[in-house]
Description:
- By secondary structure, the protein is mainly alpha-helical.
- It has helices at about 10-15, 15-20, 25-40, 50-55, 60-75, 90-115, 135-145, 150-160, 175-185, 190, 220-240; strands spanning about 45-50, 80, 85-90, 165, 170.
- It has eleven helices and five strands; from the N terminus they run H-H-H-E-H-H-E-E-H-H-H-E-E-H-H-H.
- A three-stranded antiparallel beta sheet has the order 1-3-2. A two-stranded antiparallel ribbon has the order 4-5.
- The longest helix has 27 residues, at about 90-115.
Amino acid sequence: MKLFYIKFCTGDWLKDPSLSICSPSTRGIWMDIVCRLHEMQSGGKLTANLQQISRLCRCSEPEARAALAELATSDTADVYEDNELWTITCRRMRKIAEISEKRQQAGSKGAATRTANREANPHQNCNYNSNCNCLERVREFARGEGIQETDAEWFYFKGEGNGWTNGGEPIRDWKATLTSWKRAGYLPSQKNNGQKVLSFTKQKERAPIYDKLPPSREPSEDELSNARRIAAEEKEKLRTQLNP
């Protein structure tokens, strides 16, 4: 994958003693070479004649020759000439490319190992031999995962019935499928026992239910007169307390 940027360490560029003794024009040409190496994705190595190098670095041939000689003398880069072909190597970019290649190979080996260990169904190693103990293999794996034996048998005969498919697609790893069904709560014992299944979606809160208010009505004459009487009595008591 090509990166649209380059990892540039300003501290290393300024503190590199080999690069510091080079002339400003050589440092500028070296920067162009580094950018070209990144664009070409050649693992930090460039091989071309002097005319091509001068075009890539946007300078004249004498300037390119002087810069290459100075880069080689200062040990800033690995520079070699053979039959008018110059080979320029940036040691840091070469090291990064080698590490990336090793990691890519290690990842490919790991993925190949995981793929080789997958079993689409319990019969993959026995080729549906009549004397195979594939059902017992499923039971044994289920016991290790804390799955009930009845659920293991249900999973086995369900796979036998639908040709070891899930949602119409062939199962790639029956062990991973059984484990994921357990975590999702798809097994019969989990459904029958009403076992709660973890959900990663936030449940909506139900709105509270309030009692209905009684319908509004006009107070009767008796209620009004009784309220006026109580108000007058309270008013008289308050006046007596304020003016003893």
